[in-house]
Structures are given as C-alpha cells and as structure tokens.
Amino acid sequence: MFDVCVIGHVTQDRIKIDGKIVQEMAGGTAIYTAIALKTLGLKVAVLTKTSRVDRIHLLEELNSRGIAVFWIESPETTQFENSYQRDRLDSRKQRVQAVASPFTPSDLDPIKARIFHLGALTNQEMSLEFLQAVFATQALMSLDGQGFLRQVIHQTVQATDWTEKVPGLAGVDILKVDLQEAQLLSGKTAIEPAAIALNQWGVREVLITAASQGSWVYQSGILKQIPAFKPTTSVDPTGCGDTYIAGYLYSRLTGKPCHLAARFAAQVATRKLENFGPLREWETPESIPS
After folding, report:
1. Secondary structure (H, E, C), the chain
2. Most buried in the list 31, 94, 115, 281, measured by CB within 10 Å?
3. pTM
4. pLDDT for residue 286
C-alpha cells in the first residue's frame, strides 16, 4: 500500500527565461509532486505514460529515488515549453509540442494507495470515466484542476471551462487550483464565493493558490488565508503548485489540520522556488518555525 500514487504524464520540459533556454528536464506533476512527496518521507508511486524511447531518461530520477513507477507505453511523450520573464516569474507562457495517450480505468488495476493525486496537464488526459474509476477505489482523491482547464490549440495552451466539472468534482476530497482557475471553474470572482461553490459540488477541502499573494484553504464552512513565504532568491517557479500540494498531502497524512497543512505547503513551495527542478532536499518539519 502506497501513501500516495501520483497519476500524470511525465513530460519533456524546456524552460525559457527572458527568451533563453536555461534548462531541459523531465517535468509534469508526476515528477514534481512525486519527488517532493518522497523527499518529505512518504511511500510514493507514479502512474504515467511516455514513449518507449523516452522512458529511461525521463523516469531515471523517479527510479533512482525509490519511487515505484507504473509505466504504460504511449506513441508520444508530452512535451512542454514554459517561458518566463525574469521580472514576472508568477506568469508564464506555454507551448505543447505533443501529448501522451489518455489514462483508462484499467490502468489503475495493480495499484493500491491511501491517496490518488491526479495531475492532468491538458484536458485530453483524464475522462470522467477515469475519475469515476479512481473514486471507486475508495482511496482519497486529490486533484489539481489545472489540466482540466487547459485546451491545446495549435500547440498553444488556452484556458477553457471544464464541461464535466460538476460530476467530475463530486468524488474529489482535495482540490488544488490557482486563483484564475478557481474563478473560471466556479464562475465567481471573489475567493470565498468561489471556494464555497467548489465545495458545494462535493469537494471537501479546497485549496486556492496565488503565488506571492499567498493561498487560501476552505473546509467545513471556514476559509483561512495562508501567507506566502518570501524566498531568499527566485530561481525556477515551474512545479511550485505541484510542490505545494505535495506539502499539503504530506501534512494531512501526518495528522495536521487543514490550515497548518496549507502553511507547511506554502513553506515547501517557497523552498522549491529557490532551486531548479523538484524539491530534492528538506530539513525535518520540526526544525521549521510554525
């Protein structure tokens, strides 16, 4: 039994800052969330799809860190290009050169986990049927709303509403979205009405992130704001949201209440921002001021 199984495509990522390529690496929620969870001390699995030719180099770090990888061959590997401006790291432009095959209910057959975390990167990857299959496992379901609101048109990512959001969210225990995603999903501009709307569709714990503006957690009718933690330096924002949810899931699994779990999540997301790639190092939580 795994603590968390992360489901999502491992991607071939190219990161540009001010128009220059600064890094090429494996990416996607399956990389950033899974490695952060492993760094924090959990037993982690990944369900992913890539092409056979990309399998070895893209999954190398997952394997080397002792993360169980349930790999399924796809004709293509998902490829993302993330572009930032140095003075606006909270904002990015994305291009998608290819998308791997969607997940199907039978892909879940060999995996047992306390939590399944779904990290779709585009709206082509996880159908309502697949979400319902995850729900049927009776494990907790955590979902990043980002991919369900991304449509790829001519290699460009465009924000679009999730047409099956009401039945899709009905089985979700924990939902993470950023502020713009929360507004698009809920149709509400203000944070609290957006969180309430998402909660009323069935989500028990709603997390809304806003980068340097902090985050909010809504549960049992209570909304709490969590401050962002100032980084010593801002190096690479790619995967900060994935690291945030990793910190939150870790903290919830270790028995912390929602608002303290969100505070811890904000701390680990800031640590990730200070370095390229996933969260690979972390001191014990007891050494971090509360």
Report:
1. CEEEEEECCCEEEEEEECCEEEEEEEECHHHHHHHHHHHCCCCEEEEEEECHHHHHHHHHHHHHCCCEEEEEECCCCCEEEEEEECCEEEEEEEEEEECCCCCCHHHHCCCCEEEEEECCCCCCCCCHHHHHHHHHCCCEEEEECCHHHEEEECCEEEECCCCCHHHHHCCCCEEEEEHHHHHHHHCCCCHHHHHHHHHHCCCCEEEEECHHHCEEEEECCEEEEECCCCCCCCCCCCCHHHHHHHHHHHHHHCCCCHHHHHHHHHHHHHHHHCCCCCCCCCCCHHHCCC
2. 31
3. 0.91
4. 45
pLDDT for position 212: 87
Query: For the segment 219-233, what is each residue's pLDDT rounded down to a tens digit?
Result: 999 999 999 998 888
